[in-house]
Each structure stands twice: as C-alpha cells, then as structure tokens.
Amino acid sequence: MSPSQKKRLAIVGLVITGVGVATFLAIMSMQSSFEYFKTPTQINSEGFEGQRSYRIAGLVRKGSVARLEDGVTQRFNITDCEQDITVQYTGILPDLFREGQAIVTVGQFTEHNSAPMLVADQVLAKHDENYVPSEAADAVMLQQANKCNDADGAVTY
Amino acid sequence: MNPFTSIWTFLSTTYHRLGSPREFYRISRYVTPVFGFLFLTLSALGAYFGLFVAPADYQQGDAFRILFVHVPVAWMSLFVYVVMAVAGAIGLIWRMKMAFVVTICSAPIGAAFTALALLTGSIWGKPIWGTYWVWDARLTSELILLFLYFGIMAVYYAFEERKTAEKAAALLSVVGVVIVPIIHYSVEWWSSLHQGVTVFAEGGPKMPPSMLLPLAFMAVGFMFFYGYALFLTMRNRVLINERKSKWVRALAMGESI
Fold first, then answer.
1. The domain spanning residue A63 has which CATH number?
2. H-type helices in chain B, by residue range?
3. In terms of CB atoms within 10 Å, which end of chain B has fewer, N or C?
4. Burial of A51 per CB tally in 10 Å (0-12, 13-18, 19+)
5. Window 120-149 of A, Cβ < 8 Å to B
6. What percent of chain B has pLDDT over 90?
7. Is the pLDDT of residue B28 over 90?
8. SS3 B207
9. Choosing among B49, B53, B58, B131, which should be mutated to test the A contact, i.e. which has the most A CBs within 10 A?
C-alpha cells in the first residue's frame, strides 16, 4: 500500500469508528425510548399518568377473559408472570387472541377497584420466533398456554 | 506450485481483471445469464417447497408462508448494504473505478429489497398482528435503511462531476453501515412487536428443516438475483462511464472486444 492509501484507510477506519461510537452513545442515552412496550410489573411499580397512551405487553392470563353485559366489551388480565394488569377492550380481537397468547395492548389507564386498568383502543397479537408444523403442535401449544407455570419461568414476548 | 498458491493467484488475477471496466464488460457477458438462470431455478424450487410441501405453522396456519419471501428480501436488504459499503470503502481507499460502480449500482437494488421487505411485512402484519404498521425498533430502523438507500442515490445524482459524486455516495454508504447491526439486533436490544430471531437464534434455528429448506433455496436464489441485477446495471454504467474510451467506441461501431 502506498502512503496515501494508508492515510485514506486510516481516515475511513476513523470515520467508521467515530460514527459507531457516536451512535452507540446516542442509543445508550435514549435506550428506554426505543422500547415498544412496558410490562405490568413496570406499571404497578412506576404508576401511570391519566392522559397518556401506554403500550403494555403480556400473556393473556388463563381463565381471565370475561365478556361484559353489553356483549362487545371484554375484560381480561395480561401478565408478565409476576404481576397482572386488567385490560378492557371493545371491538374485534385479533385471530391469534387466546389464553396464554402474548399480546400488546394500547390505550389509557383508569382506576378500577383501586388498581390500574388499561382501557385499550388497540389489541395486537405478538407471535414469537418459534415455527412448528401444525400437526406436531399439541404439546407445544399446551406449553405455550402454561408458560407462566414453568419452573424456570423463561418468557419471551 | 501448491494448490493454495494457485487458488490465491487465480482469485487475485480475477479480482484485478474485474477491476478493469473492459475486462468486467467482457467477462460479465457470460456470468450474468448464469446468475439469472440460478436465480430462476432456485427461487422456483423454493416457492414450490414453500407453498406446497412445507407444513402449515401451528399458530399462523398458511399465512406464515409469506415468510419465504419476506425473510430473504429482508436479509438481502442488509446484505446488499454491506456489499455496497465495503465496495465504497475499497473505492475510497484504493481509488478503484469498478468498486464505485458496485456501490452506485447496488443502491437501487438494495432499496428495492428494502421496500419489498417493508411491503411484505406489512401485508403479513395485518392478519397476524392486527395492524399494517407500528413504530417499533425493527420496523423503524428498516424504514431508515430505505431512506439511507434513497440518500445515497440522491447524493450520487446531485453532483455534476462524476468522481466527486462517486466519492460522496461511497462515503455516505460507509458512514451508514452502522444501521446494519442496529437492524439485526433491534429485536434483541429492545422490546418490539416484531418477532425475535428464528434462523440465527442461539442454540440453532427455531424452525423445522421442512421450513428451513425452502427458505434456504429462496435466500440463495435471491442472492443470485442480486448478482444478476447488479451485473446488468453495472454493464450499463460501465458503458456510460467509459463512453470516451477506445473499446466502447469500437463496441459502438459493431466490433467485438
């Protein structure tokens, strides 16, 4: 390599390193704003602001889904396996919605029975990174619905 | 001569020959159709196995089959960027004409892959998530990648003088390469609606071989599509760049090179 090539190699190397470090620092300082959702435990410990929209993710708690008297509003708990949050949603739920399914709910908090309740205007289903042939799925689906009962408690949203 | 030395000599002469626009033009004429043929064959096989042989997914049913297009084009959107940035760096450091041509010609192809990844992801998102779009880390960073590709193309065409344009576009592509690890790790570093890593997950792919095989066919097939599209556009650009040289004039007069 000629001296001028060496110099340009050094410049390109410095530019990449500089941009990399700057980006890394910027990302580290804004870490929490890149998160798409919060968990029920975070809300229960941090509290909530009334006029703000939140995204909360968790698994639909087994046996918690109930339909209110108006016939179109449903109330259910979502859990991160430590704590629960009650969610109320009026409208059509996604096809994947079922007990044990990971979902993301979007809406505002109110007090209900002196606990925070999310009045959701959007419910999104969150599928995980596992792909399993449907004919071999029974055991896996069972495992999915009982995720919180696992001894090691490893939950991926 | 031992085999390693001769392989090295072969690679190094091929590299240097491809560094010459004229040699590239001569050789690519034979290589380009081979790439096109491999793309068609592999993606046809991948589409057949993906649509008719692979089993339905237990959660998503048949809707997951869009994965066989979405995942390869999303991988390619990153792969093309890396190739473009490495070529840009080679061009900047060694002032190699053909490296700049690789950078400039890769940008629109990479942009197309990125746009397709966003589009197929959006189509997939509606029935499974229940929405076409959310601003989570993965989707947003992939959208930034699309704008980066547009930016590199815009910078190149904004300059009158070709050498300045090439250097500016190459520099932007090198600077922008930080987006690649951010996109890849976005689903691990932050919570997102987008799923985590399936194929390159720790402890092996979280997918049976019956689904991995068509995915592999599609991925390699799309790689050859990139080669095909790249060489076609590079051949055009070489003719434009070298239009004043003897061999292009001779070519225009109907002579062979």
1. 2.40.50.140
2. 3-18, 21-48, 67-94, 97-128, 137-158, 162-175, 179-189, 209-241, 246-252
3. N
4. exposed
5. 122-137, 140-141
6. 86
7. yes
8. coil
9. B58
A157 lies in some domain: no
The string of DSSP codes covering B96-118 is -HHHHHHHHHHHHHHHHHHHHHH
In this prediction, residues B102-110 reach a mean pLDDT of 98
Q: Chain B closest CA to A137's CA: distance in Å? A: 6
What is the mean predicted confidence (pLDDT) over B169-187?
A: 96
pLDDT digits (tens, 9 = 90+) for B130-168: 999 999 999 999 999 999 999 999 999 999 999 999 999
Is A117 contained in some domain? yes
Residues of B in contact with A17 (CB under 8 A): none
Distance CA A148, CA B187 (A): 22
Only one residue has tokens 């960027």, namely B81
Q: Quick one: CA torsion of B59, B63, B65, B69, rounded to 10 degrees?
A: -120
Whether A32 shows a pLDDT value over 60: the answer reads yes
Q: Do A12 and A50 lie in a common domain?
A: no
Enclosing H/E stretch for A7: helix A3-29
d(CA B180, CA B141): 9
Closest approach of chain A CAs to the CA of B191, in angstroms?
5
Q: Which of A157, A142, A155 is nearest to A62 (CA)?
A: A142
Q: Number of folded domains in chain A?
A: 2
Residue A24 lies in domain: 3-33
All domains in chain B, ordered by first residue:
29-239+246-252 (1.20.120)
ipTM computed for the complex:
0.84
Chain B residues with CB-CB distance to A132 below 8 A: 57-59, 208
**Mean pLDDT of chain A, nearest integer:** 85
Residues B74-100 have pLDDT tens digits of: 999 999 999 999 999 999 999 999 999
B130: nearest CB among A9, A12, A124: A124
Residues A58, A22 share a domain? no
Check CB contact under 8 Å for A124 and B206. Answer: no
List CB contacts (< 8 A) between A128 and chain B: 195-196
Q: Are residues A55 and A11 in the same domain?
A: no
Model confidence, pTM: 0.91
